[in-house]
Design goal:
Oligomer: single chain
GO molecular function, one term: oxidoreductase activity
Strand content: 15-25%
Number of strands: 18
CATH superfamily of one domain: FAD/NAD(P)-binding domain
Structural class: alpha/beta
Order of helices and strands: HEHEHEHEHEHEEHEEEEHEEEEHEEEH
Helix content: 25-40%
Keywords: Oxidoreductase
Number of helices: 10
Largest sheet: 8 strands, mixed
CATH class of one domain: Alpha Beta
InterPro entries: FAD-dep_OxRdtase, FAD/NAD-bd_sf
Length: about 400
Amino acid sequence: MLNNNFLPGYLSQTENYEELPTESDVVIIGGGLLGTALSYYLAKSGVEVTLLERNDLNREASGTNAGSFHFQIALHQLTDNMTQADDKRLVDETKLMLDAAKLWDEIETELNADLGVHFTGGFMVAETQEELQVLRDKQRIESAAGLETQVMTGNEMRDFAPYLAPDLSGIAFCPREGHANPLLVGPTYAYRAHELGSKIRTNCEVTRIEQITGIPGYRFKIHTNRGTILCNRVVNASGAWTTELSSQLGLNLPMGLSGLHVNVTEPREYFLKSMVQHIGRRLTLKQTTNNTFIIGGGWPSREEKFPLRYSNFWESAAGNAAVAVRVLPMLKDVQLVRVWSGVWAYTNDFKPILGESEKIPGYHIAMVPTGFTLGPMVSRMLAEYMTQPGSTNLIPKEFHVDR
């Protein structure tokens, strides 16, 4: 099994700084979770792959998120007046989450590494009767999709989770939810991809993607700060930078950006095995194996001129902490010791952008708003699409690049 202490040494190896290859079948732009996972799955299928990352691997959203598995239906997926079509959409989306859960079941065996994967269950809490009804409505849909969730109220809720605020209107518990260590997953994929022959170049910023003709077997010239590389296929897995690079080829993607907070507390005696989310307010909460609490949930960071990193916004840290204390009162005397921000890229419909553009043959995009939960699964899906000619049905139509 791969020793996690070995990863920092690997990530600083001079191999990452060797000369850029002059050519490659596939060039992946972006060294986050999607890019590294895709590099692994393609290399495993015998594809010649080169991965380019402008900074260090796993530095942006893939390494700055809370590492949670979000399988339950979230508030942003619901509409005010649910129709049968909405129900079907949510059933399909939940089944996709179940596919992701199955891959997380297998990932440590697949990569022969300890990635901190734990299925400890997850709560979705409600404070009002209206929110409780949402929990019940979504439970019906989740059950139809095959995802186990249980709604509890009153004494049943208090007996099951006595540490939660006793006046909550109800909770939904999903035993499949959990978490992994976001600092390990992407780098481990990269290491295993490297073992399979994938070339990884960090501190290699792509400045231009050029379509070319006249060179058999190659459709693109990738310009970087370290030279150029020819390739037949390119995958844009650059997260927040996906739109910037795609616009060079005339693609206008329905994407937006936001900076999000994550907070860490001092340690306390371990008691919270399950992740906690809120159906109506911004909250994700879990306790780590070193007894600290990680508090997140989508609170905004201070906006700065793109592409600078988002800075901390203390009003968000305070607001996030207040919701956490409301749900878990025993946190009221626990101090925050660290706050950081990451860049979140999302689509207008909160669905992935995945696959090959029909407008630009050979140009692929891998962009997922819920990138940590779905990242490994959609990367494997895209790898299968790219290695199986005619396999257009592998990727749902609602994910298509040109939708």
